[in-house]
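Q: Joint fold for the lines below.
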Amino acid sequence: MSGSKTDKHIVRPYGDTTGDGMVQMSFTLPLPHDKRAEGAALQLAKKMGMDPAMVVHAKAMGTDFTFFVVYGAVQHLVDVREVQVVERDYPLLSPKEVNTAIKKGLRRPMVVVGACIGTDAHTVGIDAILNIKGFAGEKGLEYYSEVTVVNLGAQVSVPDLVEASRVAKADAVLVSQVVTQRDAHLHNTREMSAAFREAFPRDRRPLLVVGGPRFDEAMTAELGVDRIFGKGTTPGEVASYLVSSLVPTPSIRKKAV
Amino acid sequence: MSGSKTDKHIVRPYGDTTGDGMVQMSFTLPLPHDKRAEGAALQLAKKMGMDPAMVVHAKAMGTDFTFFVVYGAVQHLVDVREVQVVERDYPLLSPKEVNTAIKKGLRRPMVVVGACIGTDAHTVGIDAILNIKGFAGEKGLEYYSEVTVVNLGAQVSVPDLVEASRVAKADAVLVSQVVTQRDAHLHNTREMSAAFREAFPRDRRPLLVVGGPRFDEAMTAELGVDRIFGKGTTPGEVASYLVSSLVPTPSIRKKAV
Amino acid sequence: MSRSPYTTAANDPRRMLDLDPVTIRKARSLARRAGAPVVKLAKQHTTVSVERATLRLAGLEGADVEGIPWVNRLVDVVREQVGLEHGVSVPVWDAMIRTGDDLTTVAQKAAAGSVQFRVPEGKAASAAAKRARVQISAGIRRVDAQRAARDKLIGKYGNPPSPWIYLIVATGDIYEDMPQAQAAAREGADVIAVIRSTGQSLLDYVPEGPTREGYAGTYATQANFRLMRAALDETSKELGRYVRLTNYASGLCMPEIAALAGLERLDMMLNDSMYGILFRDINPVRTFVDQRFSRQVHARAGIIINTGEDNYLTTADAVDAAHTVTVSQLLNEFFAKEAGLQDWQLGLGHAFEIVPEIPDSFRLELAHAMLARALFPDAPLKWMPPTKHMTGDVFRGYLLDGFFNLAGALTGQGILLVGMMTEAVVTPWLSDRDLALQNVRYVFNAAGNLREDFRPAPDGFIAQRARQVLGEAVDLLDDIVDDTLLNAIADGTFGLMTRPADAGRGLEGVVRKSSAYVNPASDLLEEGATR
Amino acid sequence: MSRSPYTTAANDPRRMLDLDPVTIRKARSLARRAGAPVVKLAKQHTTVSVERATLRLAGLEGADVEGIPWVNRLVDVVREQVGLEHGVSVPVWDAMIRTGDDLTTVAQKAAAGSVQFRVPEGKAASAAAKRARVQISAGIRRVDAQRAARDKLIGKYGNPPSPWIYLIVATGDIYEDMPQAQAAAREGADVIAVIRSTGQSLLDYVPEGPTREGYAGTYATQANFRLMRAALDETSKELGRYVRLTNYASGLCMPEIAALAGLERLDMMLNDSMYGILFRDINPVRTFVDQRFSRQVHARAGIIINTGEDNYLTTADAVDAAHTVTVSQLLNEFFAKEAGLQDWQLGLGHAFEIVPEIPDSFRLELAHAMLARALFPDAPLKWMPPTKHMTGDVFRGYLLDGFFNLAGALTGQGILLVGMMTEAVVTPWLSDRDLALQNVRYVFNAAGNLREDFRPAPDGFIAQRARQVLGEAVDLLDDIVDDTLLNAIADGTFGLMTRPADAGRGLEGVVRKSSAYVNPASDLLEEGATR
Ligand code: B12
Ligand code: B12
Ligand SMILES: Cc1ncc(COP(=O)(O)O)c(C=O)c1O
Ligand SMILES: Cc1ncc(COP(=O)(O)O)c(C=O)c1O
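A: Joint structure:
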């Protein structure tokens, strides 16, 4: 089982034996179900690096489509060293620590404006971060005495968000995007960050944070935001991040590195 | 939906829109569950040609393994023209036609010897082909008046099979292999075909037919057999094939092409 | 539909749950008392959308170059010139009489600023009202004709057995939707719902024409309705089975979409008396006015409504908030019947949304589902699959959907919304629907009759839970009656959403009627008249 | 285990199915009458494997250079020199007395052809028998000690709640098996079964040492038993829960594997009185002799046996052949009790193998499972998942396994064999087991108590089906009694396999006992003696 040892850098999928490379796959091809379609399914599997591959299930869906389940051994190797991940580069603080940090460092409450922008009406995620109720046993930002939360709710237009941030003198703007069909979340986020760069001078632009279950946390640059949070984010992580990037406290900066 | 038209030769997997290329995949990596492992899963998906790919589920299985479900768009194209399939190259005959063909062409009953070889004890498959009871509504070869069936049952050794075929003066030998772990079915089949070539002069070697749910029907050459039947085979198909390759009847030969 | 088609003497849920008839009666009368003031409010107001719906029934179609529908342009001009408190009909038909123009021409001229509207008095007024009624009644008769056409087809094909299998398509492109809907019907769907593009419910107009560019759904337009209904008529013929079509009314354009649904023979509509308020932050008064008119149209069109209680459980906890679902169902029932809908038209919503991991979660689901069945024996009920607790583990999801299907079978649900294993991942794929239907088929074929062997004891876990929820519902209704429904909504009673009556989208579209208010459409609907 | 741990007064299956006690008693007495002649036959014969098992209990381990175990070499030489009708013990210990060599040395010399065996008479004979008994009883006491050790651990950790979750590992490599078994135990498995390599059951010897090269399973060897038991002891400690270990006895070496299982503290064994005959074409007499001795050893070792009725349904139809399962269960019960096993040790087999697509298939499964539960209230019962009708559609498979789990919960099965979604594809993957356990956990946690609400009516579909199956079972038993069991087996009564008594593998290893036959192991087991 050496393959399971974390000191091994090269790994392969594991079915029931180290190195067997076995994976399961399912997909639909726009072909009527016949031997040719099964051959086409195998061709795809081979192109994906599955060899040997077996079509273990094929079912006609109407006359034009066939659904396949394919099992097989992938020949690719995974090099764990090449994996880049956005590791947490700030210390996790308790609500108490957050509040004192803000008191000491900012000498005024931190203002956070939150919203679901575009046509997205999925507020449960942003509410999990902002509402007192919180998420995963952690209270939301409203619970922090030193954080002032303005939650604009769902389907907020970008201009309204910019305006509200200006009025509220937001230190940070928290935006949620859950609907991803046709990359709606990416389009909306880019539109949002552009509008903020437009509306604020570099040094007075609020910190831009987006989140949602389908974001790639490594895309900050592409999307023009300061931070991206993915699925399972907890309020504490967000609060700690905000402190580390908005509150000039050497002590904390040190911890961060 | 042109992609679903069968006149289109280039197709891609279909999620909910023509050409979206979407597939589902699941596998295990021998890594503890953390962000790095999720990155490793994405790396594998990318190497398989999935881009974008999303890890929609990751679950630790103990401390050394993580299970993943990944969804994403495969960039590969499937060219249906390149698909080779073993199309049926013989006419499907009714039991009546089979019997008359044998009477006319062979002028004696056709002798068929069947067995599960090696340590394989899965007789349901071969019995489905040989026993009167049959399969999928079709009666098995025992039902054919002009076919003499010798079913040796399960776990028959290759030497015993060769001997039994000699004694029975077998026209065809039908072998079943269901267990495929460690390619047992391939090893056993090769051993079997070698033994027959060893034991019989070229022209008197019985026709060698293997079957089982996990065979690739295109491997006849590699395995040294005359024909391979895969999952879902029916007795009628087998009987028709035997006639077309053992019974010298021009009329039928013609139909075959 | 015959009486009580969903239960038998043997499995009468009221008996098994040992529910007190007095409590049930009390719950209904409390719902009536909570709803009555809101109905009064609804009768005192009209909205831009009600007036636009009236014009649509009169046959006004099409849009200007920017795609703004003529009904919007016309209502806006009338409002700005003479106000809407008298309704749009009299001023518009008065203008038509004076100019001799037809409706579309008047609308176009109005948009161009070349019509002067007035609120006529006496003879002129009654003449205008009369002409309006003649033209609008033609639209109402078209709705009647569509209902007759549906009845004819059902008479020919018969109705599918209960529950009806309800499937969603949501590609965003009507031309992808159609083949997918037909495929789903062939695989066994009895009802096809085309999900709307996100955000449409916040548009204060109904887009025009066939559309291919929705987000996570396809725009609800008259043209799309017509295309999809035609596609399904074709498939119904092929299958010898009438395949129903569903879309969404709730939103800023409830009345208009209801009118279009009636005109294009949709068979069901998502129509909730409070969904727009709670989940789209639409002004409460606007919503209550709109939902009443829209439901009157649905009643006339023989359309089955689906309410949205299931949504509460996506924001609130399904166990803690179980009684809010019951309360909302009772309110939806009251508003629906007041608007003329009958029991067989009430697809009251509820859902399988309890955290699957809590002990006895499946039995709790059964308790809640049986309670709904017991309270509304003659309503089909819309049974929604797990969504909130679905994850990327599609295998687990497929299993949960199987148990959801089993719960539907054990409790006699009438409309079964088919769950998708990819709920937490993507909008449904073709194969997801196919697998989902296979799941439904297995469960109902293999275990559907298990209902005969399912006999929760009156003193057992399930019955006790059901009685507890009913008790909590009655208590909550008591508070609502004291506090008024509008305040209860403002206080976040439903789905944890707080919605004050004087805020929310579309408030500006609400107008208090004057004594001279005329709306032939409302009159025809109230009277049940055809001319 | 306490009495009737699987049912309560409230859900007593006998009552719900309204089974006639007279019919049940009749079924049992018929099974006794059908089995009695076979027991007689078994007592009249010994087999090479029984004699080898005796030597293994005496402590003879190891193999020659070709890997042929010394027990085989020794028994073969004794047989060829003086025959086996007197048993191997007296000749062997007589030789030891004469030569002063220990058992291993005698075996090695015998293999080298340098020992002359004889069948002593009088004093010499009784001296040899006495010495043999002394040495063999040491092995029996080691078995007793292992049983005591197990009881101690269970006393310390307690037993898991019913049903016990039973999982399979089958990599072919004991060193991959161990971590997989430990992982499975951590995820919740109560019982781990290591599947044997295909074909081992046809070997007339037990391989030696740790092995890494099995096909679709791992060789059952004493060393592998020891390694796996140690690995699981370690995990049991870590989890504070005693994890049971299972392997397979049935086959040509039933008695020896039973002995090794007792010596290495396995906790359960697959042991069926007819499986070897039907599914491995092993000679019927050989099998009946071997199974009796092996079960005597299991009884002594406190091992729970699992019988193989489930296998019939993989070759015969699960509805048509349902009664053959019941008949076989009754026969297995008779043979087991005759060999000294008690109710709590009887993991009688049955399975969820009805074509899932036939109407009411799930309720038919419930009927069959309840019947078994009703007939054997104190036996744990081994509930096998769907296999034959599993396909490459792993989603469907995962759903079927969920309903299999539900059936197990509703009918109080004691040993739940966890079904794998990849049943039709590959031997289980690590992730298959993890998903399968998640499935079990969901079903039992969410719906396990649904059993309280499951009340099939005595005149309902389920009860009627159960009574029908019992009736057919009684009729079949009647025929078997007339026809004799051996003929019935020859005629393909079980699993459609026809197995004549004078054919099949291992026949040459059967020997009729002489009046002078001595086997201290059998004596110690029959007497329950320790010295
Ligand atoms: C609840 C729900 C709804 C509710 C929303 C109620 C509400 N007020 O939010 C209702 C019923 C109204 C609804 C409606 C629709 N929904 Co919806 N809905 C869901 C559902 C079931 C759960 C989402 C959820 O609440 N997750 C729980 C929260 C806590 O998780 P989260 O959002 O990921 O948030 C966490 C992290 O992502 C992160 N995070 C999220 N945002 C932010 C922001 C910041 C700043 C930070 C730091 C962190 C952060 O922190 C959170 C806590 O960890 C999902 C399916 C599913 N199981 O995921 C579908 C789903 C999201 N809905 C979907 C769709 C399409 C719709 C509809 C368009 C039609 C439909 N299918 O119902 C409509 C229209 C909605 C609209 N206009 O946007 C799709 C989206 C498909 C896609 N990927 O594009 C999904 C995936 C279902 C599906 N498969 O079709 N929906
Ligand atoms: C029934 C069964 C058994 C029965 C066999 C009874 C019997 N007398 O045959 C029993 C219970 C004894 C059994 C035992 C074992 N089995 Co088993 N068994 C199955 C099962 C459930 C069904 C197989 C079957 O009958 N299919 C129905 C027949 C009709 O289909 P078929 O075999 O594909 O045959 C068709 C075609 O392939 C073709 N065909 C087949 N042979 C031939 C030959 C010719 C000449 C032609 C022309 C055509 C042809 O025509 C047939 C009709 O269309 C499968 C799982 C599954 N659902 O597939 C596992 C399975 C085959 N068994 C398996 C294993 C590992 C075993 C065991 C080793 C341990 C275990 N897991 O139980 C033992 C030992 C068996 C041994 N020594 O070989 C594995 C094999 C894994 C692999 N791919 O290597 C499977 C896949 C289960 C699993 N996932 O672990 N098994
Ligand atoms: C009653 C009701 N109306 C409307 C909708 C859809 O509304 P929207 O288009 O705003 O997402 C839903 C969604 O589930 C609903 O339940
Ligand atoms: C009772 C019994 N014994 C033994 C076995 C395994 O036998 P073999 O190793 O010959 O496959 C099984 C397989 O299911 C069984 O049910």
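Q: Anything notable?
A: The longest strand of chain C covers residues 164-169. The pocket of pyridoxal-5'-phosphate (ligand 3) is lined by residues C 196, 200-201, 248, 250-251, 270, 272, 275, 280, 307-308, 311 (CB under 6 Å).
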